[in-house]
Specification:
This protein has 117 residues and is mainly β. Helices cover 0% and strands 58% of the residues.
């Protein structure tokens, strides 16, 4: 079992920056992938960025060059540095962990990011 808790959301003007954090707890061993997803009102949840336990990263095209994902596996922490924020980045951001065979998904409760123009 694993638990995820996000923090760092808030309100910012367009062009600003925010840093999201995800604290994981519980049994996290072996290969795994952590990621940030977001869901805007009326929209499907979408992948923003992911990072594996061997530090392979993947980004949505819409955030490439603006967002940076990182993790500190020893501290069981994951981060999302968001720069040059746009109003279309407004959403609830969720932390996700994929681990094990068969693969299991764990989710945080979400943190709101609001970008005003």
């Amino acid at each position: 079992q694993a638990q995820l808790v996000e923090s760092g959301g808030g309100s910012v003007q367009a062009g600003g920056s925010l840093r999201l954090s995800c604290a994981a707890s519980g049994s996290i061993f072996g290969f795994n992938v952590m990621g940030w997803y977001r869901q805007a009102p009326g929209q499907q949840r979408e992948l923003v960025a992911s990072i594996s336990s061997v530090s392979n990263t993947n980004y949505a095209d819409s955030v490439k060059g603006r967002f940076t994902i990182s993790r500190d596996s020893a501290k069981k922490m994951m981060y999302l540095q968001m720069n040059s924020l746009k109003p279309e980045d407004t959403a609830v951001y969720y932390c996700n962990l994929q681990i094990g065979v068969p693969k299991r998904d764990y989710w945080g409760q979400g943190t709101q990011v609001t970008v005003s123009s």
